Amino acid sequence: MNTPATGNGGPVIRARGLTKRFGELTAVDHVDLAIARGQVYGFLGPNGSGKSTTLRMLCGLLTPTSGEVEVLGLRIPEQAEALKRRIGYMTQKFSLYEDLTVLENLQFLAAVHDLPRALAKQRVDEMIERYHFGDRRQQLAGTMSGGQKQRLALAGSVLHEPELLLLDEPTSAVDPESRRDFWANLFELADAGTTLLVSTHYMDEAERCHRLAILESGRLVADDTPQALCAALPGRVWRIRVTQTRVAEAVLRGHPGVLGVAQIGTDLRVLADNAIDEATLRRLIPNTEQVVIDTVTPNLEDVFVAATRLSRAEAA
């Protein structure tokens, strides 16, 4: 695994052998991480892959079964209480008070973080302006749209200017336009020096990250920049156009050298190992005289399919 350079005395987050078990279930299995300051670092994986559990251990909300964790120079979980003042945490579920106004929610959070009165007023005003709540200061949080609630939750998470912000699938309940705006806000924070950890199951969000960890059944199966992961894909990606699309898909799925098949419009996108060439594909597919086959550039979904498929094969 490559370790990102920081230029600031080492990684902001370092984990070695991070493991969490719940009875017989291993939710996180010997994960190693090194995360640089100012990065937007993504955790990509399906539900149950260990993303949320990993985030909760990194911020001290869960105690690891084994392994070592250091965050912002603090040992976790031993110094988790000191860490709380230096991080922000945002979950996919809206966690502010729906019966309080935008202003009241932010004022309450300022009090929770024990900000001095003058600084609290300054920061609340800054958040209202930055996240476009100027005309909604007195609106009850419970009456806002999903995207507005998300912006308010983000404003609350960074009110105390944390060095590290952890976001657990924060855009799962909002529309595409709100997701785009939300990510623009995240990059503004990263540009200002905040380190961000974002868990997601959206491929387009994963592609935005500076660096990406792919988790499968609690194990780290890939860790690099999205571009490097695509370049290092073990195999090739083919685009196939054939008259009997569904028949061809069924045949290809049954071949051991084919790692994944997806229908995109009228085409099939096929991820296969390097032993499969165009001639092999033509032999496999019915009505070969009507087949058009091309190689295409791998994307992050191809990487995800390959990494998780290989991980399952190794675990079997």
From TrEMBL:
List the keywords (alphabetical): ATP-binding, Nucleotide-binding
Q: Name one Pfam family in it.
A: ABC_tran
- ABC transporter domain: which residues? 13-242
What the entry lists under InterPro entries is as follows:
AAA+_ATPase, ABC_transporter-like_ATP-bd, ABC_transporter-like_CS, P-loop_NTPase
Give the molecular function GO annotations.
Answer: ATP binding; ATP hydrolysis activity
Under SMART domains, the record lists: AAA
Query: Which PROSITE patterns does this UniProt record tie to the protein?
Result: ABC_TRANSPORTER_1, ABC_TRANSPORTER_2
Q: What is the protein name for this chain? A: ABC transporter domain-containing protein
